[in-house]
Amino acid sequence: MRGGIEVQYAAAARWAEPLDRGIARAVAGALSQYSGLRAYGFSPTIPPPNHDYNVHIRIERFEGNDNGQVTLQARWDVTPADSSEASARGKVNLQHNGWQPGDYAGLVRLLTAEIDEMSRQIARSLR
Q1: Which domain holds residue 80?
Q2: Please, what sign has the CA dihedral across residues 49, 55, 58, 62?
């Protein structure tokens, strides 16, 4: 984000997979690690295996800005597989400062750390 209002796309730096699937894969891996449960990522073409919970995440901000701040802002909820009522919900607003704009590998590292922290919060709700 430039100036808080303009999105600037990098001409050569791209995610290697669709962002929704990459985040789902990262969250599933972290949940498996931190919760002791087996977690599966999102795939729109493959039905999920038998499972106990659904985790829904709404990403509101996932960005680095020209001031060197990296932000993940999201809301999440956990529902038992046989229910539509959330058993847990939360929100995160994680920020790191000191990112050098243009250092896309650094941006990915910081955003990955923020996804990991959000996953830890979700995992704690499953205990």
Answers
A1: 19-125
A2: negative
